[in-house]
Amino acid sequence: MTVELLTSEAEARSWIGAAFAPTEQQWAQLDRFAAMLVEENAQQNLIAASTIPTLWVRHIADSAQLLMPIQRITDLAVTGTRHSWQGNTVTVEIDISNLGPSQNLSFTADFALPVGMQITNAECRRGNLPCNDGFTAGGGHLISLTDGNGLLPNRTPYTAILTATWNGVGAPGDMTIRTFTDATAIDTDDGATTTYTISGPSAGDIIFSNGFE
Fold first, then answer.
1. Given a cut of 90, is residue 129 above it in pLDDT?
2. Which of 39, 80, 162, 197 is deepest in the core (most CB within 10 A)?
């Protein structure tokens, strides 16, 4: 939950209620703390006297927001797509980057190749180094991955490499990619769909083998 600009004591109390859902006893403790703060402020200068009328806005809500987890803003994006054919087998590479500004602790991604394709292998790399992430098949042309290492902002992208066969029915068509950040980060387009068109092999390519080539 983001901290909004609070302009009244009622808004401050409402925000605390929505953010932390205090119990009846906790509300009573907060009220007692506010009263004690005002009482003690008459003896020693704890807060500026001019802020007492806006005590909940200026001090209680302001302090309460420190209990909230730090929100990291990330921007996961598909920054590169390419494919190549060998016979009726296509290899698709998808680059996923964190455009920042904060670190992404982990992420998941869903890939949907065109219907009629059968995924036969999935792997990944970062730069020239292989990585060992979990891929979960969701059907012949569907697969998901979970990356537990995360991505630093504006660094080497994560590259998913998918290999699939095509049954030759219709044009290969569009592939869709969806990325999701970790639960403690914020991405304004989290789960948005990126579409990549996998064009068919060139007319001169051998698509299907009959064993006599």
1. no
2. 162
